[in-house]
């Protein structure tokens, strides 16, 4: 296993937050991209798609294997499930954080205490290489401000659906900044989030990308505009950059694919660190976009010497990046 780089001590304190029990509060100003927390799971929970009785058996076995102090800490965690299940399973269901793309989860004594916001200022991410959960600042966080993560991370859903999910899974009504918007502003926000989700669905549809790559990339451009207006700086940015990379790679546009992969890498580094396996993969694709398994799947627009215009930056770079008239010429020839 790789060396485990420590988070910086003294970045946060865990203290009572009005209406939320206890939560994380920044002890001093935390800069964007800072690793706030690095924590090994107290226990891992099985694939959540399995049946509940076998899940309980596995969790009970894990809890029994803990030391007495760890068991005390485990039973001190919140349980919002009430009589819907046993206390042990209730604690796990209330506090579990996902371990990457798998359906398994982990229970963390500290990370589990970070409260939710639908517009969070921090991001949790499982690092499979390190065997630790990481939490990074998504933007600068001032001293004495609460540190929040999203329990429905990176999912663009509207107010009503968010509230329903949070009530069902965690038994609370969210009153975060986004959920407290006046009705008109909330409806506008819901409309943008709905747009983001439907565009993501379309732009990741392989058949559509293969048939209409220029249209797909133009749709991803709209996602960035919507995310900016919405003030979202979470994992959605890295995902949109990667979708743009995939489209450019599939048409064999090495130069644009490289720029999008560099942006996906930079966004991913902020939220998960340079040592996260996905960040490392994005870094490699930024160096060698042609190694992507779908590279040139739609067509090969350019040869391998194709590079972005030298010295281009700012608005000129953006204009070049999103202008894909050349793709149409290649696809119709
Ligand atoms: Zn909320």
TrEMBL record:
User: What species was this sequence derived from?
Assistant: Mollisia scopiformis
Its protein name is: SET domain-containing protein
The opening ranks of the lineage are: Eukaryota, Fungi, Dikarya, Ascomycota, Pezizomycotina
Q: Which Pfam families does this entry report, sorted A to Z?
A: SET
Locate the SET domain: which residues?
A: 7-152
Q: Which domain of life is it from?
A: Eukaryota
């Amino acid at each position: 296993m790789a060396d485990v780089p420590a988070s910086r001590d003294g970045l946060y304190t865990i203290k009572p937050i009005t209406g939320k029990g206890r939560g994380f509060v920044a002890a001093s100003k935390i800069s964007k991209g800072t690793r706030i927390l690095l924590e090994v799971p107290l226990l891992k929970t099985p694939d959540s798609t399995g049946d509940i009785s076998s899940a309980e058996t596995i969790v009970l076995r894990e809890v029994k294997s803990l030391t007495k102090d760890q068991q005390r800490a485990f039973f001190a965690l919140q349980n919002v499930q009430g009589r819907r299940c046993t206390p042990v399973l209730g604690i796990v269901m209330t506090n579990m954080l996902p371990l990457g793309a798998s359906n398994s989860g982990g229970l963390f004594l500290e990370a589990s205490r970070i409260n939710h916001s639908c517009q969070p200022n921090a991001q949790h991410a499982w690092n499979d290489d390190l065997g630790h959960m990481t939490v990074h600042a998504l933007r600068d966080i001032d001293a004495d401000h609460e540190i929040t993560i999203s329990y429905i991370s990176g999912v663009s859903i509207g107010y009503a659906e968010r509230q329903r999910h949070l009530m069902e899974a965690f038994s609370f009504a969210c009153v975060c900044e986004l959920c407290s918007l006046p009705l008109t502003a909330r409806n506008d926000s819901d409309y943008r989030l709905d747009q983001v989700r439907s565009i993501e669905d379309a732009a990741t549809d392989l058949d559509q990308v293969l048939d209409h790559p220029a249209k797909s990339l133009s749709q991803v451009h709209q996602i960035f505009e919507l995310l900016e207006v919405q003030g979202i700086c979470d994992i959605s940015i890295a995902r949109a950059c990667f979708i743009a990379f995939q489209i450019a790679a599939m048409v064999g546009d090495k130069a644009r694919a490289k720029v999008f992969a560099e942006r996906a890498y930079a966004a991913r580094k902020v939220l998960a660190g340079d040592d996260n396996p996905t960040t490392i993969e994005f870094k490699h694709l930024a160096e060698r976009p042609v190694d992507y398994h779908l590279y040139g799947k739609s067509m090969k627009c350019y040869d391998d010497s194709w590079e972005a215009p030298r010295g281009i930056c700012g608005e000129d770079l953006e204009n070049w990046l999103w202008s894909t008239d050349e793709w149409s010429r290649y696809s119709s020839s």
